[in-house]
């Protein structure tokens, strides 16, 4: 376990090895007393010169004013180790949220911009005689994030970038990914797996000097309050096998701790905490003793027979993401409709007993009661498989299976429910004016961020339904209950509808086929005096237009 040899302090002074402009190290004291302000200091990064860069949010001098979530600021140490009053770095900032990721070289910087003024993504800057100058956007194949919260750090070797994204392979909200600079380009971001990532938020990652230890903040691994700092050690070269994350010593509080960064190979860490700042982050420093930390953690978690390198890769292969708690509101499942995809074999266990031995399902049009041709499909890990009745009977476990038919809204059942059905399944035609509630597309309370990977898979099913019925035009309608500010409710409902449309477009549905609207709490379907009624009113609907 990482031990704190001195208590953490705001704007404190500790012995450190500070980097000089020539890249050598010299013993100094570090003093941050001039750095912190009444605003939101976040995401510290040390430049090769020893200058401290970080984001400051909601500062009136930010390019976007007091609503700007982060401009880049910089503080410089003097000969005695005292950092100067921070100065805004205008050339690296935009009118939106800006996050400095790292320095590929002394005169290069990588900065994330959130899309409000510049294209959303990572951009390269070059430093010359006139200061920082814009270079170009960094191309990372498959880079995209649905979240407003981005964080990331470039390792000192300039070849490895760890970052927080909410993307298609995320287990829930923000997850941690890694990308490698190989053959002159950055690789597709790779999810670090369920040992690190949960259905909640994992943020502000950084790597140790040897790239073996990951530090990050999370509200999904327990802790004392909001988000706490954890560390885990990589067990092999796959970047998906890790020791169980453990909290970093005594720095975690009931507030939010983010942006943890080992400042050197010795014993100094820089991070931010909201514990003493009324919700905004302040830069903190802590003296850390971490010798033999990685070896001790692995020793605790691996049985004797697993210590050989050839065995380590099997550790944690069966770890699953944490179970998602009950959502804030009900939403109905969207299902898949596809006629032309050919069945693919699903390997089942021949010894697994069927429930029952013969699957008998009749699917009818709910209006005409005529029998409908259908398919049954499983969507798992982003991949769809058409199943035969025999394959369904042989499936192990209780799986989520979808009944779909061209021209009809799909329906999803658990495998156990489907195999026990004796009554016909009634499908509703996807005709003009008909609609469904997207009950299984779930959002975090008060945001347009999806709660889990299951919600994303349900949107994939919806995209398949729309692509298999290319003549349909639809409207996605967002609704809330009537609590709170009516205008904010309307904006939230529109944001949720727009988020679903964007994901459908990413899945290949044409933009012109999808309209969106946000009604806030103006169109309730139940009373708002009870929690059950409010849950029903908080919904997203898909309406067939043509």
Describe the structure.
The chain has 546 residues and is mainly beta. It has helices at 293-301, 309-312, 389-394, 415-419, 453-468, 486-506, 531-537, and strands spanning 3-10, 13-19, 25-31, 40-46, 52-57, 71-75, 87-88, 98-102, 108-113, 121-128, 131-137, 151-154, 160-165, 175-182, 185-186, 190-191, 202-207, 213-218, 228-233, 246-247, 257-262, 268-273, 282-289, 363-365, 375-380, 383-387, 400-404, 411-414, 425-427, 435-437, 474-479, 514-518, 539-544. A hairpin with a 5-residue loop joins β4 and β5. 43% of the residues are buried. The model is unreliable at 1-28, 290-299 and 302-357 (pLDDT under 50).
Provide a brief overview of the structure.
With 546 residues, this protein is mainly β. It is built from seven helices and 33 strands.
Classify the secondary structure makeup into a structural class.
Answer: mainly beta
Tell me the number of helical segments per DSSP (H or I, 4 or more residues long).
7
Radius of gyration: 26 Å
Helical content (DSSP H or I, runs of 4+): 10-25%
What would the average pLDDT be, to the nearest integer?
Answer: 79
Terminus-to-terminus distance: 61 Å
What characterizes the major β-sheet?
Answer: 5 strands, antiparallel
The shape is: elongated
List segments where confidence is low: pLDDT < 50 over at least 5 consecutive residues.
Answer: 1-28, 290-299, 302-357
Number of strands: 33
Q: Strand percentage, roughly?
A: 25-35%
